[in-house]
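Subject: Sanity check before I submit

Could someone independently write out the structure tokens for this chain? I want to compare against mine line by line before I put it in a report. The sequence has 369 residues.
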Amino acid sequence: MKKLLSIFFLLSIFISLQAQDSFKPIEEITRVHNKLKVSVLPKVELISIVQTISKYPTVLGFLMTKDSSQYKEDVVNHFKAFEGHPVIKMFDRLSLKPRGFNFSAPSNIMLYTDGSFQLKEDIELDDFVISRSGGIDSVKVFLNLLEDFAIKSSFNDFFEEHRDFYEDLVETTVGNLGPRDYISEIENFYGKKQKAYSIVLVSLYSYVGFGNSLLFSNGQREMYNTMGACKLKDGQPFFGNENYLKQLLRHEFSHPFINPLTEKYWDHIKDHSQRFDSIPEAARKTVCHEWEECVNEFTIRAIVTQFSYGESKEYGLRWYKREKSNGVSNLDILLDKIRYYQLNREKYPTFDSYYKEILGVFKDEKISI
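---
Independent answer below. Compare away.
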């Protein structure tokens, strides 16, 4: 009975929204650097505003900025009057529960949409992300409510009023990327090309990055590093210097390569999930909270460490010590495996062709975790 009432509730909201005015898409702000896009996307900015005026910061505050910038003050002053809107209530219901509509899911769902909050038809939706949002019907209702919120709160006017601010963020970040060709570095290592790479700047997020992606029917992905500012600099959100951006991009752009491989070969590793209990407490607190996440994070952190050694022994050692202190306990054996892969690319042209060897590190009871 409760499920039936929920369906009627969702349908009534959906039907009531059909008569609303349509949202008029607005132009995103994008610069391209070495084929890497750096953007402020209106749709992602909008969901970050919803997160800011909801109960989200009281429960998952570490994901949202605590800095008091003029921009955050402008957001609160403009949108606080709409905190009773149904989309805020629905977001609270979906997000304030474990493994719900939180962490990377809100921004990921927005990347699934076009400029009018309609789900794109040329991508394959990730069932895990959709389930975190309450299922496909829930997602569609939420997006309709979000469109209504954007119209009634005059989001477009707010965004246009702050366009110069967003453009300055993009210009500054592009200037801090340096000359490195991040896309070639990543694709040469994994042995696979992807459709596109983007950095999405979100001023209201905290010191976090989310490795989101969109999967197309040809097997390629649009890769996204959706990131918050690491601090305020001269009163403005600052997204990092060249060294910070370099390591963050290596990490976040690796997730859309590694996570699908772990899922693809999950049968080889799932029966060893009890080994999660042996993972150092430092890692379980800050790096991963479950077995699959541990496999992904430990692997990616070893890869980024190896990238660092590729620059210099000193830089690699610094990153090695950092990850060991984070509790990546099998880092040495993972580094040995990664170096073997790099030296034997004729036999292993892609990381996919080698990945079972990586998973062996997590399965082998003789290797401590």
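---
OP: Matches mine. For the report I'm noting this point. Residues 15-19 have pLDDT under 50 and may be disordered.
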